[in-house]
Description:
The protein is α+β, with helices and mostly antiparallel strands and 316 residues long. The chain has helices spanning 2-13, 87-100, 141-147, 174-179, 225-231, 263-267, 290-298, 304-315; strands at 48-53, 61-64, 70-71, 80-81, 109-115, 119-125, 131-135, 139-140, 158-162, 170-173, 188-189, 194-197, 202-207, 213-216, 243-249, 255-261, 281-284.
Amino acid sequence: MARILLTLALAASALPVSGQVRPVVDPVNVVPATGSTLPDHKIVANDLISVSVYGEPGLSRIGRVFADGTILMPKLNGPIRVEGLWPREVEAQITRDLVDEQLLVHPLVAVSIVEYASKMISVVGDVKVPGQFTITGPITLLEAMAKSGWTTSDAGPDLLFTRSANEAPKKINIEELQRTADPAVNVTLTGGELINVPDAPKVWVTGNVTHPQAVPVRKPGDATVLKLVASAEGLTQYYNKVAYIYRPDPGDGGKRREIAVPLKDIMHRKAQDVQLFADDILLIPDDNGNTRRSILQSLQALGGAGASAAIVTGMR
């Protein structure tokens, strides 16, 4: 008899409320969402969510969150604000509403995210595949960089990250992003973010080199006279023994000052290599060929092995 009475009591508790009895919410009966293959996140507009009320198909629904962050539930008065809430919090809210409006005594509510809202992320600057791509759920900054094909050879050491046009960009070091799992660096993106990878600062090498060019400087020590000569694939035949660095002088309105560099001594390891800084210009001038031509002319009358040895010695 006791079992029969208990069964009847449980069955009655799931029936709609009648009369003036106002039941109290039983929080134990708020069950977790089931059947969703997507991980939970705070609900945003245009998410497709499922609300299931156990044993009450007329009170259950699947639908997208409106642009104002609300949903409508069958038989409930007015919209329910869900944007910014976790599914478990929405379950509790709907449970309270069902009880407050005397529709059920102990409703069992499950809320799950069926489909994330489709949003765009923009990646611009020195990446291999710049542009916008769609996400249907949260991704990390590292994943967004991977989707863009990672950086080009011209990229600087840092990227600039912003969540909206009204937010100041945050600088994140790209090498640190690769080696850390810190969520303050490898931030979570939910859509609408802009990632910009600026050019690396550059130094220029020009004059009597095989390939004059601009060379990126990503960190101190990246650019020296020897490294720039190597990057330019070496010197041409008639280079001067002295090169010149033209460096902006902040104290003189950015006007460039000239710094002489003992190029020949550096090349022959008789002088220490010289470091260059962002926006420097390394000029390797021509000696006008005067030294080389005078040596060659003085050796024209010679012949044989002696001439060859003299030419080599003279060239040095």
